[in-house]
């Protein structure tokens, strides 16, 4: 059985740290906590779980802090978590089984990562993240923000194990400011850094700047294909927000240069035609979305675009086209994914009144 060192970096996480550690303490063999400047009870809580609590002088560089935490690991594999991550009992059992079964010549293990949830606690954004690393390989984190480790060596994709990111802290401009300071200091952003800076700009409603940096990322042709597709999608969302629908449409089509259609792209094209009140064309694109095989991408997967969204919008399209039977059918198909959705319940009531009329 392999052994695991849990390596975490934290700051002011008193509200969530115990929840995280309680969820994983049975699956790890060592807990290492690196505090980057807390002024709450974070370190006090950490000390109740481990004697290995270290201070690290924050230098606006997450990779530096993570590399420091990894340097303290003594077990066969290093595992990272954020303080607002949680591992379910079911997934802990799978990790325990993985510890028994994993070939020791494996260098990296990836898990699925559910990072955003709707109000029904259904994951709406899922990615694949490198999660376990063979300690003897001395892997290094890269980039000061949205840090990552290059995938190399023998990799095992544990696609049935999920980590849940249950973010509770308020949204801040911390990451945006770090990127802006890098640029101000004349430091060149990596291709990944350019992509994530564009995302930060979009999240802060600085859409014109975001579009510029997404385009720069694409034009440099140095990025990961998944980020290329995501850039096209994000440009489209920015342009749509700015009421530049035709530019949004062109960006969606541009994504086809990189890989076969993704459901978030085809569904957004469906929305484009819905805005034009061309429900026949819109329905074709939403039907394509539900016919696509769900991608096993290592990038972000926008789950609702593959099932709930196209079905609920097909209910609207078919109603507009006068085919109530198909409208009801797709509303019920959407209900398989979000049975308590207000949209589902509203549509049921609406279609019921039509039948009674």
Describe this entry's structure for a reader:
- Helix content is 47%, strand content 16%.
- By secondary structure, it is of the alpha/beta class.
- It folds into three domains: 4-165, Spore Coat Polysaccharide Biosynthesis Protein SpsA, Chain A; 171-255, Serine Threonine Protein Phosphatase 5, Tetratricopeptide repeat (Alpha Horseshoe), CATH 1.25.40; 260-357, Serine Threonine Protein Phosphatase 5, Tetratricopeptide repeat.
- Strands 1, 2, 3, 4, 5, 6, 7, 8 and 9 form a nine-stranded mixed sheet that branches.
- Helix 7 packs antiparallel against helix 8 and helix 11 (279-291) packs antiparallel against helix 12 (308-320).
- The chain is globular.
Q: How many strands appear in the DSSP assignment?
A: 9
Q: How many H/I helical runs?
A: 14
Percentage beta strand:
15-25%
Assembly type of the shown chains? single chain
The CATH superfamily of the largest domain bears the name: Spore Coat Polysaccharide Biosynthesis Protein SpsA, Chain A
Radius of gyration: 23 Å
On the 0-100 scale, what is the average pLDDT? 95
CATH T-level topology of the largest domain: Spore Coat Polysaccharide Biosynthesis Protein SpsA, Chain A
Q: Name the structural class.
A: alpha/beta
Coarse shape: globular
User: Helix amount, in percent?
Assistant: 40-55%
| Top-tier CATH class of the largest domain | Alpha Beta
Count the domains. 3
